[in-house]
Amino acid sequence: MNLGGKKVILTGATGGIGQEVAQALVAKGTWVLLVGRNQVSLSILEKSLKSEGYGSDRGVFSVSADVSVESQRQHIVEFAHGAMGGVDILINLAGAMSFTEFSEESLETTEQLFQSNVIAPMQLSRLLLPEMVEQGSGNIVNVGSIFGSIAFAWFTTYSSTKYALRGFSEALRRELVDTGVEVTYIAPRAVSTPFNSERMMEMCLATDTEMDSPQEVARQLISALEHGKKERYLGFPEKLFVRINNLFPRLVDMALKGQNQIAKRYLK
Ligand SMILES: NC(=O)c1ccc[n+]([C@@H]2O[C@H](COP(=O)([O-])OP(=O)(O)OC[C@H]3O[C@@H](n4cnc5c(N)ncnc54)[C@H](OP(=O)(O)O)[C@@H]3O)[C@@H](O)[C@H]2O)c1
């Protein structure tokens, strides 16, 4: 797909990965609607993209909205139509994290993660699908995680949401076959962004977890879109572990036992 001139909604635009994706998209000549909750961060990003001379001024827009609230999702879609006259690509990147013992997680946190990581991408897709199907083209990009294929202790809710997002992506792709609308699922491994708290960063160091830069994730996401990839998993040996976990999950239970105990020390 040639991204030039495409109209994109990018949620999570002000985050570590989002800023890099936004910059890469605008450099490709797309029109982008940046979405996040913090208006100041959005304005700074919008201004910097325009001042760096990426694309034309009329191609970068921003709207402050909480994707976990249905009325605000509707506002995002209406805003996109008003500003850009349509939507070709939805990138569901906004997400929330919880690193805790599941028995100590509040119901509110569990619900919030499912709202942000699962319901929001599903419902934004639902709002945009009729026009995409009618125009016979479009792409929904869901940013999951390696945790959507290998569930990790202390990330029980987060892993569950990313499994759900992967399932949604696969089912929707099959449902949309022959409509011209594509679904792309991206599964990064750990990425050095503020998404990971200081404790999580320390835990990654202690468990020798490899981390990618947000620039690398953005590069892979854009390349997957341009090459019409249905899925892209980042990092080796993570890709291999995903396959082993599918085939021999009890083996992975054993392999992760030691790492889980190290990780547990960083919970509090
Ligand atoms: N970093 C990693 O290690 C890693 C690894 C694998 C997958 N991922 C996935 O990559 C995505 C982005 O991660 P990141 O590292 O870029 O995170 P980040 O730096 O923490 O950024 C998160 C972004 O999402 C926005 N956001 C969060 N909740 C929102 C809500 N309810 N409504 C609207 N916007 C919301 C934040 O802006 P506001 O706070 O202003 O709303 C921010 O723009 C997530 O889906 C995450 O699961 C990350």
Question: Topology of this protein?
Answer:
Elements (H helix, E strand, L loop, with lengths): L6 E5 L4 H12 L3 E6 L2 H13 L8 E5 L5 H15 L4 E4 L14 H29 L2 E6 L12 H20 L5 E7 L10 H9 L7 H13 L4 E3 L4 H10 L1 H16 L4
Parallel strand pairs: 1-2, 1-4, 2-3, 4-5, 5-6, 6-7
Bound molecules: NADP nicotinamide-adenine-dinucleotide phosphate.
General description of the model:
With 268 residues, the protein is of the alpha/beta class. It has one domain: Rossmann fold (3-Layer(aba) Sandwich). The chain has helices at residues 16-27, 39-51, 70-84, 107-135, 156-175, 198-206, 214-226, 238-247, 249-264; strands at 7-11, 31-36, 60-64, 89-92, 138-143, 181-187, 231-233. A 7-stranded parallel beta sheet has the order 3-2-1-4-5-6-7, with helices on both faces. The longest helix has 29 residues, at 107-135. The chain is globular, with a radius of gyration of 18 Å. The termini are far apart. Bound molecules: NADP nicotinamide-adenine-dinucleotide phosphate. The site of NADP nicotinamide-adenine-dinucleotide phosphate has 29 residues, from α1.
Task: Quickly count the helices.
Answer: 9
How large a portion of the residues is in β-strands, by DSSP E?
5-15%
Radius of gyration, in angstroms, nearest whole number: 18 Å
Tally of DSSP β-strands: 7
CATH superfamily membership: NAD(P)-binding Rossmann-like Domain
| Largest sheet features | 7 strands, parallel
Strand order of the largest sheet: 3-2-1-4-5-6-7
Low-confidence stretches: none
In the CATH scheme, what's the topology name?
Rossmann fold
How would you describe the shape?
globular
Distance between the termini: 46 Å
Number of separate domains: 1
Using the 3D structure, state the CATH architecture. 3-Layer(aba) Sandwich
Small-molecule binders here are: NADP nicotinamide-adenine-dinucleotide phosphate
Structural class: alpha/beta
List the helices and strands in order.
EHEHEHEHEHEHHEHH
Mean pLDDT: 96
Tell me the name of the CATH class.
Alpha Beta
Portion of residues in helices? Answer: 40-55%
